[in-house]
Amino acid sequence: MSQTTNARSGQRRKNAGLTIERIYTTPGVHPYDEVTWERRDVVQTNWKSGETIFEQRGVEFPDFWSVNASTIVTTKYFRGALGTAERESSLKQLIDRVVLTYAKAGKDNGYFATDEDAEIFEHELTWTLLHQVFSFNSPVWFNVGTKAPQQVSACFILSVDDSMDSILNWYREEGFIFKGGSGAGLNLSRIRSSKELLSSGGTASGPVSFMRGADASAGTIKSGGATRRAAKMVVLDVDHPDIEEFIETKAREEDKIRALRDAGFDMDLGGKDITSVQYQNANNSVRVSDEFMRAVEEGKPFGLRARGTGEIIEEVDARELFDKINKAAWECADPGVQYDDTINAWHTNPESGRITASNPCSEYMSLDNSSCNLASLNLLKFLRDDDTFDVAAFQKVAELVITAMDISICFADFPTEAIGQTTRDYRQLGIGYANLGALLMATGHGYDSDGGRALAAAITSLLTGAAYKRSAELAGIVGPYNGYARNAEAHQRVMRKHQAANDEVRTLDTMDTEIHRYATKAWKDVVEVGAKNGYRNAQASVLAPTGTIGFMMDCDTTGIEPDFSLVKFKKLVGGGSMQIVNQTIPRALKKLGYQDEQIEAIVAHIAEKGHVIDAPGLKPEHYEIFDTAMGARSISPLGHVRMMAACQPFLSGAISKTVNLPETATVEDIADVHLQGWKLGLKALAVYRDNCKVGQPLSDGGSTAKDAAKDAAAAAEPVVEKVIEYRPVRRRLPKRRPSQTTSFAVGGAEGYLTASAYDDGQLGEIFLKFGKQGSTLAGVMDAFSIAVSIGLQYGVPLETYVEKFTNLRFEPAGMTDDPDVRMAQSIMDYVFRRLALDHLDFDTRSFMGIHTAAERARQLETGSYTEQDDDVAEELESYSQSPAQVPAKAEEKTEEKAEDTSAASETVGAVQITSGSGAADVRPADVEVHSSAELMEKFQGKAADAPICMTCGTKMRPAGSCYVCEGCGSTSGCS
């Protein structure tokens, strides 16, 4: 039972506070007592190296939380040193740490009418977090209730002026924000261009040169131990004289990456040579004006203005400049576009300054030197079993959450005093949602359809309307935000704009009609109550990526995104994994009127093909309901833009989302997306063309230039009469030499490795037998063995071969029968790991992440691979189970759990799959698949263009304008 706030019913406070209404809880019953709790072991490994990167046993979670959710919460959010009494070990401790802090701050600051209201607030907040109805952003879970500074915001906007003091302070402030794992954005347009003069008479460096220093700083702090790469946004106005240099900055660096990669340098994400390329730690965006976009449409010239005087110092062709933006985005996905006049037309605080920049993911847009606290509601939690949407509960939860978010500003800490002051004066909040894509599919709405957009618009309108309604009510209790008085007219004007946009929504069915009716009432209250009380918050809503917290809530889709794919990768309690057809699909098919037998056949088809095309019995007019972000039926680029446009008028901020285009898209296609984004009223837009950052050859011009340079250099070389050539000397093995033969099995395929050594023990020869004698494969293995052996005898270090051949991925791959190398990505991966273990010293192979089972066991027990431990033998025994024993144990757990499972569900690999209208097709995942992104690769037959997680080695997948790892919850952004 959790500790609770002291409550005495009916005791009135001095100020009339909020009366909190119960939504889900029962009087006299704590939310923890209504669920079944269980203990789990959380063990996380890097699938590439096989090393355990995290282990905490006996953690406590509700039985309905997935393995993935409990793993990510345990590894990311539990505080305290592992192995100590201070370490959190239960979800109860985590939720109490946060909720009790919020409840106490609410009481201390006069938010509640009575102590009983404070207790109801505490219990409702606990219930909704416990049942994954919503989640705060990650900094809340990291910091609130701990001894660390109580930073609750994930998003920051900085400011920089045209002075060296301000520029150096920018570097410093960004450094502190990155150190804490958050992200920041800023606009560099105040800095003089390289075409303007300094007061001393010299020429200014320009903002792009200062970007170089900031980029190096961000990269250094990332490599110094941050949990993820630095997230930052750099914005430049389209009328800045250095705008062309800014536009092409990252595109030219991408050319360098390709050239260096082709020359043999390690240019992968996190590679040792990638740091030699600049500007890779920031997202770049051009801030375009209506004046510029009209000049593009009309083919007119456009003036670039001096920063100090505002005078036009150069005119350019608007269309040519727009084409350069589109071409650079086509080449490397940067820069994005932000629509300045649209952003500031919805600005509630124009008297306090313009909005010039955004956070790294482009959803938070507000004053300079400010921050935003985020939280997101899980939309699928409001869909009842009868497929109706619980509108009343949705509005009440939105009001509850926005109350908690505002309370957090009362006790929050901030990275700089300027940010703290602005945030306390304007109290910007960012309530949003996740699982929109899953909700649309479950209710039979296509993502790119009028019905889907109408439903999304109504939900977004109600969310922001409910938030501002509560904000106006809070203003009557604890006062409006400090900057409200000077901005009252503008703030009320924006509220009326939201209300007018709500009036223009055209509903198409019963569900969106009811939601819209609630939204209309909410906006009426917003305008009326706000005119009397003012508002507590300058901003209320954004649509964030919801990466890590999306996994915490067990969401199928993130933010505003459609479903990533129809077949998902799921982890099992027993330690295995499976692929499962999205369980929203059977529910959607049942709502569309299909019978159980038809549903079963369609689901089986999806499990096999990864898409719905030609699924037996599925009507073609229903295909669009199952369209996804990737795959055979992917949503068109303008489909994404239209969905963003449907929701944008109901958000204080913007939308974190990348519009994906196929590799075949043209520069003109990207231009159309950017133009339509402006016309449809978006605030920001980013595009990504598949494979634009990898695998693109140099252009003919580049190749020709390179060849010409080589020819010129060769012609200029002097003739050398005498050449001294140094050759390695072959050290032959003695006639009789010690050898060791190892039999092995990788993914069920058997082979033999014979390794021969010199008298001093140094490896000098290998023979690899794999395949039948006389077969092509056996011949290739013989030739490979001879080539490696000769290299070893000529002095090529074994560690060089280990570096090159470990982590190669091809079939056969999977489980091995070697206790020291339990998983191998290929035969080569296994062979050279085995050779490293047998012939390299501990320090060399440890640097490569290659350890024996005994060493890994010691590390788990003692924290060191080399310390002696009495229990190592026992631990090693558990590590040395044959691969066949692991599934057997999972099956035993499955059978035990199945006894208690109702007829309406299936239990697969110790994970209960609720069947709804028929269980989704479930099957063991292939050994080479480790995430949904890799499942999609399997179905598409080509590699997904996504980075590898630097923590656990899993291929990440898109989440808004960022990427998120399904293995450990790490993100590439700031959410």
Automatic annotation (TrEMBL):
Positions of region (Disordered): 860-924
Q: Where is the composition biased (Acidic residues)?
A: 867-877
Record-listed E.C. numbers: 1.17.4.1
Q: What residues does the Ribonucleotide reductase large subunit C-terminal domain cover? A: 153-688
Ribonucleotide reductase class II vitamin B12-dependent N-terminal domain spans which residues? 41-132
Report the superkingdom from the record. Answer: Bacteria
Please report the stretch or stretches of sequence annotated as the TSCPD domain: 734-837
Known SUPFAM superfamilies for this protein?
Answer: PFL-like glycyl radical enzymes
Q: Which GO terms describe its molecular function?
A: cobalamin binding; cobalt ion binding; nucleotide binding; ribonucleoside-diphosphate reductase activity, thioredoxin disulfide as acceptor
Provide the catalytic activity annotation. a 2'-deoxyribonucleoside 5'-diphosphate + [thioredoxin]-disulfide + H2O = a ribonucleoside 5'-diphosphate + [thioredoxin]-dithiol
User: Alphabetically, which GO biological process terms does the record hold?
Assistant: DNA biosynthetic process
Can you name this protein?
Vitamin B12-dependent ribonucleotide reductase
State the organism named in the record: Branchiibius hedensis
Ranked from the top, the taxonomy reads: Bacteria, Bacillati, Actinomycetota, Actinomycetes, Micrococcales
